[in-house]
Amino acid sequence: MNSINASSQINETEQPGTQMYQLIEELYPICRSITGNGFRESLRIVEQYIPLETHEVLTGTAVFDWMVPREWNIRDAFVKNSRGERVIDFQANNLHILNYSVPIHRTMSLAELKPHLYSLPEQPNLIPYRTSYYKENWGFCVSHHVLQQLEEDTYEVCIDSTLQPGSLTYGEYLVPGNTTDEVLISCHSCHPSLCNDNLSGMALATFLARHVQTQPRRYSYRFLFIPGTIGAITWLAMHESQIQHIKHGLVVACVGDPGISSYKKSRRGDAEIDRAVLHILQHSDQPYNVYDFSPYGYDERQYCSPGFNLPVGSLTRTPHGRYPEYHTSADNLDLVQPIYLSDSFAKYVAVVDILEHNRTYINTNPKCEPQLGKRGLYGTMGGQKDTKTHEMALLWVLNLSDGDHALLDIAERSGLAFSIINTAADALRQSGLLQECSR
Amino acid sequence: MNSINASSQINETEQPGTQMYQLIEELYPICRSITGNGFRESLRIVEQYIPLETHEVLTGTAVFDWMVPREWNIRDAFVKNSRGERVIDFQANNLHILNYSVPIHRTMSLAELKPHLYSLPEQPNLIPYRTSYYKENWGFCVSHHVLQQLEEDTYEVCIDSTLQPGSLTYGEYLVPGNTTDEVLISCHSCHPSLCNDNLSGMALATFLARHVQTQPRRYSYRFLFIPGTIGAITWLAMHESQIQHIKHGLVVACVGDPGISSYKKSRRGDAEIDRAVLHILQHSDQPYNVYDFSPYGYDERQYCSPGFNLPVGSLTRTPHGRYPEYHTSADNLDLVQPIYLSDSFAKYVAVVDILEHNRTYINTNPKCEPQLGKRGLYGTMGGQKDTKTHEMALLWVLNLSDGDHALLDIAERSGLAFSIINTAADALRQSGLLQECSR
Amino acid sequence: MNSINASSQINETEQPGTQMYQLIEELYPICRSITGNGFRESLRIVEQYIPLETHEVLTGTAVFDWMVPREWNIRDAFVKNSRGERVIDFQANNLHILNYSVPIHRTMSLAELKPHLYSLPEQPNLIPYRTSYYKENWGFCVSHHVLQQLEEDTYEVCIDSTLQPGSLTYGEYLVPGNTTDEVLISCHSCHPSLCNDNLSGMALATFLARHVQTQPRRYSYRFLFIPGTIGAITWLAMHESQIQHIKHGLVVACVGDPGISSYKKSRRGDAEIDRAVLHILQHSDQPYNVYDFSPYGYDERQYCSPGFNLPVGSLTRTPHGRYPEYHTSADNLDLVQPIYLSDSFAKYVAVVDILEHNRTYINTNPKCEPQLGKRGLYGTMGGQKDTKTHEMALLWVLNLSDGDHALLDIAERSGLAFSIINTAADALRQSGLLQECSR
Questions:
Q1: What integer pLDDT is reported at residue C3 of this predicted model?
Q2: Whether A369 and C130 lie within 8 Å, measured CB to CB
Q3: What's the pTM value of the predicted model, to 2 decimals?
């Protein structure tokens, strides 16, 4: 925990894990997709925690190179054998349906059915998660064991879905701050019953919003609950004039699994958000991974496209595709746990604390050191072997506050935690030895 | 093999090794020096492969701080003992003569002779290669074993050479391209019977010229077959106004031995040629060495002198002076082998491919990703765990084609081979998603 | 030894160790503080070696954020037990007194006395060194063994000191050079009987001043013997208009102990002084440590405060606080030894040699290499396997003397010692191949 007000936040950061988990439990049974009622129902649940605004964008709306697709809804789906038994049943697990399957209702042989069945031969107990948003198709996802047990038979195949003009839905919550400069927190909210990817992200974003709305803040915080890819594209297309306000951003995903924290840098690679997250991870006393930006992953792909190149990274635990439960039925309520959600939350809070407090000061007494003792800032006994961390922080802040170094620069160069540097800066500012630099 | 058209080139790169070796065999017996008929005869052999222009520069011509020296020719040389036996015989190996020896014909004691004999005590079976271009001298090079067996006797010493006003000869072949921007390929061609240094370089340059003349090309390629040092100085002095056209260059030498590939960077250190060669070596799946520029070596010394500072490096196998056969009679037809010549050739071809295709593009759809699926560029099934290398290359090229990144930059940052990046760029350009940047 | 005139300096650098040690012996018994007669007496001893100017700055003079304190002097101090025995005696070791103790003379119980006694429980045989310059206090420093043996008794406590308006004293010696550009050599001279910290620094500065005054020099050298912190602040405050002349500087301290050499970089981190010292250490064939600047340590804190940011580092052996004898009675005449003083001195001399000779030249024959052979600068026999270091140095200097590289740059890039590069540059300049660049 490197945050500024550790005592008040520990309570918050311990509870959020449990609370976030409860929210995940509420959201888990719903069959979400990039459009449709499952997405809307999910937003209504989040609205019970934060005052989300829900937006609807009509099918066919042009969004850059794309078009908002038809809306998909599904009531039921099954494959019945000739004895009338549901051998594949959407009611049992919504992953069973190829997401965005077009409606179908007819009988067919196993040979006809098989090309529409998806399984994971190397993980034979798990149901895969598959989608076909942009090519009309229908299909079922099943465990390989079930697939292998299907006998020659005549099957009744029913997908009671609709794919019709409608709208794409997204949720947005702007927490205004003292300035119009924004921090963007974006989570894809389109996956069906998959907990880590990305109910964990939705839950963390929800509770981070609750946190920042209670804190004094210079930044405005924009929380987006959007369908992956098409949602980010839609939002960006409809808010081009506002994008300049985004100064920092994080894509929140996969924050509840037991893996170590991982940070994928923004395309810029050395943006303030990149350095803030790295600082928190470096001072976390935990192992962590850092990855350079690559144009594959979540919605940072869109935020970091060359026409925007926004300083948006992604702080996760195990990244997408790197844990065996990824995009399978094993990404369930057992995989994510409150303790990991709490830990991820605490790191997001600490990052926000850095962004909020990373100011640049000018030492008002730049020629030689000021006399800290007479201001009560410093020990009075000379000659001792050790100097304390706080005193070192005071000296570092004074030495580097020349208008060219923000507090995060000073933390990095000194090797001290940002929170310690910030505390020292507070003390010096109160003594009149620092003035904020209005650059 | 990282070249663009691998299938067509594998045939070319397998044959050249054998063909290059045959050319080396033809050139091997000739006694070359920095001037004279041996050099001319060698160029006439190369002319059978490529349309070389031969130039003669008169003795006494001032070339920067130097002067074209008198021309040296030799017909015969020997040391006979009192029984009339040739104990040292130029006819047996032209390394026996101190290159540029002035004529002499008289008898002398062993004591008189000995200061004019050069051997390698630590490699007692090998004849060293020695020259005395700029200080009049005469001498013989012998194996240390032969030297030690010479008895007290009266020896007839004969060097039937001439050192007279004449000219310095060099060969040049300009393969014009779509632009006047040039790639310089330079090989010193003045060494007598030494295969790796530098008949291998002459052979590689010859066959690289044959290769590029058959390829579409934006660059013009200038191949120089010159005497070392004085030849490069002479060429530079006589072509000062054209030097600005040289955009990339390589000094070709020592490309036929079994050692791993080595690259000596240009004085600039980060020129495009340096990065192109490093990329090929990094993706070669072979070990390799890289050396920073130093002002000792081959003609890169002249091309990289501070008044020119051309982007010229040197791609060799074992560098000069680092293999035991270097500048001895063991640098013979056994040391160089077709397989190593082929491998070196393939790397030069791959470097040329990078230079030719390293263009900078602008993503015409820079805001968010374009929809690759509707253009048939991309898989249509979402949610799968892996994305393929080609798809990653498409995404990298789109993401970084902002006008600031050429394809080699993108290859370096993505970790993908240039050839894969170039293929992706071709596909995107054909889809209208990329436009070449005219910077 | 990387200096230019090694033969003449070896004599000097062997003797200085012994001579420096003798100076340390003379200075050791004196009780110094940041003001007072002990400091003055010490300067009078140094004046026997170099023509030091002594300056007095009156108590109460404002110096930036500070004020020159009252002057402290002490004649005697003791704690007597009821039997009249001096159980703590300033006459035995001047570390026994808390430096800057106010006068006191009265009897008290052990309980009253104890809060005024300072010891080192983990080093029970050693007397600590403590000061209280800026908070009125009195006290005694004793070994922990002595402290533990003190019985319940009535003690006579006497500190016969004065703390009165007077002045702060410092010594200064400017050795003028051909230019007004200055090298600053600063040593704190305020510590009482502590040899390494910093009688060793005072001795090295003294003998370095004797050295430079006998050498041709382009720089002026300013040697400061000042009380720590307040002395540097006072000097800087009174010489603000001259500070611009300081081009390089070193704080000299802890140069006599057996530890390896250590360099603490200036705040800039890549100043010429930083690179010069690193070069000497890298070529010393000895282990060494390098530390980045931090705002704790000696007077580099003041010289590197953001309002000045002078290129001042500190070349020591074991740095402050990192050896067990630091600020204790064990920092005595046994800890420092002539051999280490000599070695430190030699390194300072070598650094000065770099600063003096680190000029930038232009190759007057920049296009291709000049013909070194005809100028007698180079071997005449071509084809040999090795080239000698001197010849490499000639080639490096010619290749990089383009106006952008000073000799230290060339030494760094070539990997050759500065002295070798400088010798080559001398030879080339004498041949007319180099001209000094007047940048």
A1: 34
A2: no
A3: 0.93
